[in-house]
Specification:
alpha+beta; Alpha-Beta Plaits; 7-stranded mixed beta sheet; about 45% helix; globular
Length: about 210
């Protein structure tokens, strides 16, 4: 960072890594990239990967906390983890991370990510059967596919991660799976599923919803 400021700028990689954003090696390489000591091609070759991203969020968490208290919310998150983690593992997820009521799972192939999403919804329906409404667990899922930087806690930072997160966390409804355009291009041949395109609307990109036939 060539520019100087009248206040301290944190450049110690060990202290930066303690913030929890990236690891020390990644911070070291980013500082080198920023300073011109590493070119973009080298950085991309080191960290870029093409993966399928499953970004999942739980519904009605605020309502649950307001009506039943935070402990009920915690147990709903626990139950979602107990149901969903085995599904992700069964379908070959290479990385799984949870944060609050959000879930991220990374897959090598988009077909595996899509199958995992559909299976999560199927098992949630079985789990919820007979439970009081306050204890039921529903999830909404966004799927993306493409090149990302395998850095950070989710090991997937980039445009497709951003889109999958927007679809899974802000756009999809309970029991719904939404796909980015890149993801849909990889799975559109699936004859056992129906796909509905949605124009941008409030989002800066188009997307697809998936419906079993």
């Amino acid at each position: 960072m060539a520019k100087t400021f009248p206040f301290p700028i944190l450049e110690d990689v060990a202290q930066l890594a303690r913030l929890g954003g990236w690891s020390e090696p990644v911070y070291r390489d980013l500082l080198a990239l920023d300073a011109g000591a590493m070119d973009e091609a080298t950085f991309r070759a080191k960290y870029c990967r093409t993966v399928a991203i499953l970004q999942m969020d739980m519904t009605r968490m605020t309502e649950t906390a307001m009506q039943g208290g935070p402990l009920l919310s915690f147990t709903r998150v626990l139950h979602a983890q107990q149901v969903c983690a085995p599904v992700f593992l069964e379908h070959g997820a290479t990385h799984i991370r949870t944060f609050a009521d959000d879930f991220t799972a990374i897959f090598a192939q988009p077909g595996a990510a899509l199958d995992a999403a559909l299976e999560v919804h199927r098992r949630m329906e079985i789990y919820n059967a007979g439970l009081p409404s306050a204890q039921q667990v529903y999830c909404c899922i966004g799927l993306g596919y493409g090149e990302v930087f395998a850095i950070g806690l989710d090991r997937a930072m980039g445009d497709e991660m951003n889109r999958a997160s927007k679809l899974g966390e802000d756009t999809a409804k309970a029991g719904e799976t939404l796909l980015t355009e890149n993801f849909h291009a990889q799975v559109r041949h699936r004859t056992n599923l129906g796909f509905v395109r949605h124009d941008r609307g409030e989002l800066p990109f188009g997307y697809f919803s998936v419906l079993p036939k």
